[in-house]
Amino acid sequence: MTRPDPGLAQGWCALSELHGRIEAHIERALQSTHGLSVREFSVLNVLSGQHSGTGGHFRMNQLADAVVLSQSATTRLVNRLEDRGLLSRYLCPDDRRGIYTEVTPAGRALLEAARPTNDAALDEALTDAEKRTELQPLVAAVRALEPAPAAT
Asked: In 35-104, which residue ranges form alpha helices assigned H by DSSP?
């Protein structure tokens, strides 16, 4: 029997640590400034990208996959955001069994106000993580994923 590569486990631990550090830092910033959790921000952000064309709206299972939550946790989160007036629901015009969730104007305003906070907190968390040797390659990988500036 071959032994597992300890580097793989160490890499996973480093990735998990980086994720936890980033999420905790962003959570504190979003909560204190906008009263939003990281998950709430993620749901608003994902749903704000919807469009009215074919396949432009997320079903609840697609939203759950996009924000990495169970369907039941996603439903509870959507209910809370709807209760706060940040989301609304309506019947799918093509399939009356389907229910779409849409970001309200208040939700869009909060999301746009929270984006700079999210981005700054993410950058701060990555900059702090770069001080840890074992996290430097992961931070470099995350930073390399940033989209290239639009061509002018």
From this structure: 38-48, 60-67, 71-83
